[in-house]
């Protein structure tokens, strides 16, 4: 189970809805630095008790991210273009920005931090339909691929790039559709059906637990609404070495 030894955690995409929630959960027990792109958001980030740190995934060099990651134990990537700026910007932030973070971790002198990458359910080789998908999953998957093709493509390409890397430890968290509903503290985690949504509160709660779970390294975990307490569902998936990754 988790050990609550204080860690230094760097959140990339720190002004995001999930990231702000995560910072609030972590700062009572961990040192948190929150990387955000706009200086205008500094006060909002400081209000979470995280240390604001301005860098842009699109504009700042990889070396600047390596410096930001020095002495950290865990990096959480929760950034995304959020559909703003079209397919080109989705590629820039969700794919090239993620690769910049991977390269920056590799460039950290000394001990490399572990990475937790927020991806999405159904990030997979488009030619392989997971065995556990039912008809509803297949229909939802087809809908994603039709309505947000750039998002689906670049999340998958980023995940695929990460999975091939061995020089630092990583875990991929793959939430279903996100809501602003209050968290319920329960979920289905591991290799799941993909039609249930999940609240951003519950995604943040799962990320906070993953910060203290180095034994989740090498796993890609789906996270959708469900009936099992999050800590229990996460613990079972990690212990059973469940992974939803299909490369
Ligand atoms: N929406 C869904 O249903 C869904 C489902 C599954 C997974 N996800 C993933 O879950 C993650 C978190 O979601 P969320 O709702 O918290 O997203 P969000 O609120 O849109 O947060 C994303 C953050 O990324 C930041 N960002 C964008 N471009 C950047 C850049 N160049 N440099 C640095 N930061 C940059 C944004 O900064 P600004 O605040 O300055 O714009 C924003 O704060 C994302 O990776 C998303 O793809 C979403």
How would you describe this protein?
The strands form two sheets. An eight-stranded mixed β-sheet has the order 3-2-1-4-5-6-10-8, sandwiched between helices. By secondary structure, it is α/β, with parallel strands linked by helices. 38% of the residues lie in helices and 20% in strands. α2 (42-46) links the parallel β2 and β3 (51-54). It has one domain (8-239): Rossmann fold. The structure holds NADP nicotinamide-adenine-dinucleotide phosphate. NADP nicotinamide-adenine-dinucleotide phosphate binds at residues 13, 15-19, 37-38, 56-58, 78-82, 93, 97, 118, 120, 175, 177-178, 200. NADP nicotinamide-adenine-dinucleotide phosphate is lined by residues 13, 15-19, 37-38, 56-58, 78-82, 93, 97, 118, 120, 175, 177-178, 200.
Task: Describe, in short, the structure shown.
The chain is α/β, with parallel strands linked by helices. The protein has helices spanning about 15-25, 40-45, 60-70, 85-105, 135-145, 150-165, 200-210, 230-240, and strands at about 10, 30-35, 50-55, 75, 115-120, 170-175, 180, 185-190, 200, 220-230.
């Amino acid at each position: 189970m988790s050990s609550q030894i204080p860690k230094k955690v760097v959140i990339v995409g720190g002004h995001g809805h999930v990231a702000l929630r995560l910072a609030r959960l972590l700062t009572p027990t961990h040192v948190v630095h929150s990387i955000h792109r706009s200086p205008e958001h500094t006060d909002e980030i400081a209000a979470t008790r995280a240390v604001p740190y301005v860098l842009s995934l699109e504009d700042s060099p990889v070396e600047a991210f390596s410096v930001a990651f020095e002495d950290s134990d865990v990096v959480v990537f929760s950034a995304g273009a959020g559909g703003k700026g079209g397919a080109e910007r989705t590629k820039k932030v969700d794919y090239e920005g993620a690769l910049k973070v991977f390269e920056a971790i590799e460039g950290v002198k000394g001990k490399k931090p572990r990475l937790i990458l927020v991806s999405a359910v159904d990030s997979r080789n488009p030619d392989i339909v997971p065995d556990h998908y039912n008809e509803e999953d297949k229909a939802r998957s087809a809908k994603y691929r039709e309505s947000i093709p750039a998002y689906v493509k670049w999340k998958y390409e980023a995940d695929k790039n990460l999975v091939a890397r061995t020089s630092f430890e990583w875990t991929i968290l793959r939430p279903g559709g996100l809501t602003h509903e209050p968290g319920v503290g329960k979920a289905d985690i591991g290799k799941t059906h993909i039609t249930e949504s999940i609240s951003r509160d519950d995604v943040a709660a799962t990320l906070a637990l993953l910060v203290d779970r180095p034994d989740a390294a090498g796993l890609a975990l789906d996270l959708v609404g469900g009936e099992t307490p999050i800590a229990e569902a996460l613990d079972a998936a990690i212990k059973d070495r469940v992974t939803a990754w299909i490369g």
